[in-house]
Fold this sequence. Notes:
This protein is mostly beta strands.
Amino acid sequence: xxxxxxxxxxxxxxxxxxxxxxxxxxxxxxxxxxxxxxxxxxxxxxxxxxxxxxxxxxxxxxxxxxxxxxxxxxxxxxxxxxxxxxxxxxxxxxxxxxxxxxxxxxxxxxxxxxx
Length: 115
């Protein structure tokens, strides 16, 4: 399994972590609607920012993305909040890299995992 390159850091600033159980709801003719989860384990989406560093690191990260199907394949991600390694993939359709303070590259991202 591929791993996110070590020079890439996931920032927790503006971090969010929605859960999606794909709840299915059926409205009734009278009374409360019925609900049930559509899956037993939720899809967890982590939204944050990756800091990549130098222009050379950006080139290496772009090559890593290319080798991993544009980020669509699963890879090992060390969650900085829990300290646990998870299998994740990127949800990004477009990668909008930003050059910050004439010092480093960063990019907003969404990671998706099961559970």
